[in-house]
Design goal:
- The structure is a homodimer of 357-residue chains.
- By secondary structure, chain A is an alpha/beta fold.
- Chain A has one domain (60-338): Nicotinate-nucleotide-dimethylbenzimidazole phosphoribosyltransferase (CobT), large domain (Rossmann fold), CATH 3.40.50.
- Helix content of chain A is 48%, strand content 9%.
- Chain A has 15 helices and six strands.
- Chain A has a six-stranded parallel beta sheet with strand order 3-2-1-4-5-6, with helices on both faces.
- In chain A, strand 2, helix 6 (122-125) and strand 3 form a beta-alpha-beta unit.
- The radius of gyration of chain A is 20 Å and the shape is globular.
- Chain A starts with a helix and ends in an 8-residue tail after the last helix.
- The relative contact order of chain A is 0.18.
- The interface between A and B is large, with 64 and 65 residues.
């Protein structure tokens, strides 16, 4: 059995039977019933996912996966392609947005080269949180044919699973997804359009901030790519290979790997959402292991979240990616778990319960 | 000059002139311009409030103020009155929701007895984070006349200012407001109705979770109280004295005190919102020092936020009070400041900027 099918076969339904018991425990804490709203929901979900009565989310890890995209040749991004590699070095030196926010919430960032278009110089790296899983030097321009071979698509997902499993040995209680790849809102919009069946215009936004002219070009490019590639909307691997990206495949692998080990996974923004669509179409049970970090400014993100059935934790007009929203959201989820595990009960604190009305 | 008028006279407009310069610095960091959305706004607001180019929000303090309410005699709450004092002990032992969440974000909780209906036993307390500023043993039932005298209203606000100034000596970079008081959504709804001019039904919710019958009684009680007391909607002190509460006055004092010292203040939920209405009606310039932590489930909270002109940071279906939403939100605001102060610049990180389009 392949790594991928072995992993998928291990993904089980989460244990819904624990919800009622957990809610009873929450109701016994010194607060009006249900008054901590979504924090209580997060606590229940974490119990259901992990099967632990009192889970801990101490070990927080964000996987920031980087890759390049051949479709950038079509002029779909406001930034030049070399920025992908430059940002990988920035991540490894700790100067990027994700480093600051991960540090703020006590999370570790693992940076993965899934397919950056140049070699990351090992001499410049010297960082134990870097993983080289390069599938290829960027995808092909998918306006002219598939972004990658089917074999590469599977390899990218399996590389994500491998990275997850390698890092799991160091301890992971909750995972966040993150991405870096100049041009990667273009494959993400293409995936969103194909899988959800919505019009390209509805799921295509300005990415890093393109102008009107570049946006209409981007929409035209995506439409053409979908027409040229004719992928099967129900086959996540086919969609990934035709109009995807290596970091998107890797993140789908992270999601599948985490679900197979009953570890909750916080999905960052639009690109991570496209990876979630791929993982979800491979195995819909992954949905219950997902927490949507936030609702991105990027047009189409809400459509992706609604398609899977996820309600975002935050809404802060973010559109950076890298896992920045995931970092902030995982801290909120952790807060919910601490409510369950650290608050006093009515009896323990000598507080009167509500009157029987 | 009284403590109150002295404090109010020190509240200055925030320094809007710093916004442009700060945005330029943000635009020079290794991310697409504006891509961290509201985090960037928070960073700018903190610079404008403090006047510091690179503010730090390390010292986070939440003031959880407790008091009782005579109007509880009218059967407006699902919990018995003695819970207010019981929860004060719970706060001081660290078992309440606010303790868990403040601890999660690295904030200190200062618990203040503003008017609990029984004496807090000092022998049970032994906690340096407890302040006794009791104005009276709870307010009077405001269906029958004013909740407190005008003198008590001023004293409660001044006590809040005093508490803030006492704690400021230990170091405060950002403040959160929090409340505890069985029945205190009733005065808060009354204040909201009087100040905003909206119908009582629109600003009255279920508090700790009352049933339909108790809710209609609560609405009837508030309408009667407003009719009996005829307060001046433009005079925050008059409104506070007629239909307010001691913890609401104390929190208004915290807000005024913080603004007078150029310290940002994170407003928690509905009761803190009522306190913000009082502070805002005394001095509208306080608005710029406020951050709305979240949008509460409590009906009327959004009306209060819109009236002042505040956009909440979080929306997590919270309705506990105590400062729980403020704790989570202040950590998000701090994240925004760290973006400004800790991220690498394009030049520093050797990352190419966007193409001139």
């Amino acid at each position: 059995m392949s790594k991928l099918s072995e992993t998928v076969s291990k993904i089980k339904k989460i244990d819904y039977s624990l919800a009622e018991k957990t809610q009873k425990r929450l109701d016994n804490l010194t607060k009006p019933q249900g008054s901590l709203g979504r924090l209580e929901e997060f606590a229940k979900q974490m119990v259901e996912i992990t099967g632990a009565e009192s889970p801990s989310l101490k070990n927080k890890v964000i996987f920031t996966m980087a890759a390049d995209h051949g479709v950038v040749d079509e002029g779909v991004s406001a930034f030049p392609k070399e920025v992908t590699a430059q940002m990988v070095y920035n991540f490894l030196r700790g100067g990027a947005g994700i480093n600051v926010l991960a540090n703020h919430v006590g999370a570790r960032v693992v940076v993965v080269d899934m397919g950056v278009a140049e070699e990351i110089q090992k001499s410049k790296v010297k960082n134990q949180n870097f993983k080289d899983k390069k599938i290829n030097l960027g995808t092909k321009n998918f306006v002219k044919g598939p972004a990658m071979t089917k074999d590469e698509a599977i390899k990218s997902i399996e590389a994500g699973i491998e990275v997850f499993e390698e890092e799991l040995r160091k301890g992971i209680d909750i995972v966040g997804t993150g991405d870096m790849g100049i041009g990667n809102t273009t494959p993400s919009s293409a995936i969103a359009a194909v899988v959800t069946g919505r019009a390209v215009e509805e799921v295509t936004g300005r990415g890093t901030g393109v102008d009107d002219k570049t946006l209409s070009n981007k929409i035209r490019v995506i439409k053409k790519a979908i027409e040229v590639n004719r992928s099967d909307p129900k086959d996540g691997i086919d969609v990934l290979s035709k109009v995807g990206g290596f970091e998107i495949g890797g993140l789908a692998g992270i999601i599948l790997g985490a679900a197979s080990k009953r570890i909750p996974v916080v999905i960052d923004g639009f690109i991570s959402g496209a990876a979630a669509l791929v993982a979800y179409s491979i195995e819909p049970k992954t949905k219950d292991y997902m927490i949507a970090a936030h609702c991105s400014v990027e047009r189409g993100h809400r459509i992706v979240l609604n398609y899977i059935g996820l309600k975002p934790v935050l809404d802060l007009d973010l559109r950076l990616g890298e896992g920045t929203g995931a970092a902030l959201a995982m801290s909120i989820v952790e807060a919910g778990v601490k409510i369950l595990t650290q608050m006093a009960t009515f009896e323990g604190a000598g507080v009167s319960e509500r009157r029987g009305t």
